[in-house]
Each structure stands twice: as structure tokens, then as C-alpha cells.
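Hi Prof. W.,

I finally got the DedA family protein prediction working! I wasn't sure whether to trim anything, so I left the full sequence exactly as given:
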Amino acid sequence: MLRRLYEKTMRLAEGPNALLALVLVSFAESSFFPIPPDALLIPMVLAQRERAFKLAAWCTAASVVGGIVGYAIGALLYDTVGKWIIDFYVYGQNMDAFRATYAEWGAWIILIKGLTPIPFKLVTIASGFAGYDFWLFVLLSIVTRGIRFFLVAGLLHIYGEPIRNFLERRLELVTAGFAAVIVSGFVIVRYVV
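And this is what came out:
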């Protein structure tokens, strides 16, 4: 079953709607959606390595625009939509402490958490909620999301064929590892941050 899903994803990654799907997932992940765009970016770059950096640019741009929506949710709709999203990810009880920390460490929070498996939507909503400088938030989001997606695309562009072979030979192990990274992001948010 997993092998069929992988083959279907690879076919979709080469299809005419792949870029639209990547843009939508990248946008949504920064404001409310739980699946990181890497789940689409990786197979798309593996399927079309010559477009690696173009795909990373689209992924970054959509993620930053989605982050602006997340910021707006935190700034304008925190008491309704924002609180519901934060509570859904079991982080609501720490938002006041998180807001206080933003005054001193906001830039580092955005930069570091934008690179990790911690859901970026928590950072974007919290940035708006904390009233963090909007333009600095946008600049830091471009930097951190750009580093993340261009690093993934660059590595896949350079080492794509060996990585693809590794993925195809050890698909179950890689899938379990990817799931563990996603779950660890939520666990870190819940018990560490």
C-alpha cells in the first residue's frame, strides 16, 4: 500500500497540478494545515531535479504569504480563530509566556523555529498575537523558510538520484522517519517549548 502511495505521489509530482498543490500546501501549512510542504517538495524535486530551485522559490513565497495570514490571525482574530488553532495544537496554555518571550527573543524564535519540524503556524500566529514588528517578521520568515526549502531542494538537486534510490529501497523506514519528525515537532511544542 505504501509503495502504491509513493508511486502515485511521484506521478502527481510530475503532473500539471503539482505546482498548484505545492503552493497551496505551503501556504496552508504556515497558517493552519498540519502537513509540512516538504511532503510535496521532496517528491517534486526528485521527479524534476532541473526545477529544484524554482520549486523551492515557490514553496518559500507561498509559505511566507501563508505566514502573513497566520500573523493576521494572531493579530486580528486571536480570540476566535487563532485561539482555536493554537488550542488544537495543544499550545494555548503557554501563549502568555510565549508572548512575553517575544519582546526579547522574537527574531531568534522565528529563525530557529522556521527551520525545525515545529509547526510554523504556531510561530506565525504567535508573532501576530505578540504584536511583533510585521516587516521584520516578513523578512525573518523569508530568510528562515528560504534556507529550509532551498537547502532541501539543493541537496536533492545535487544528490537526487542516490537519495531517490535510497527512498525507494527503504520506503517504509523513510516514511516512518518522516512521520517521527512531524510527530516530534508536535511533541516538542507540547512538552519542551
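The mean pLDDT is 80. Does that look reasonable to you?

Thanks,
D.
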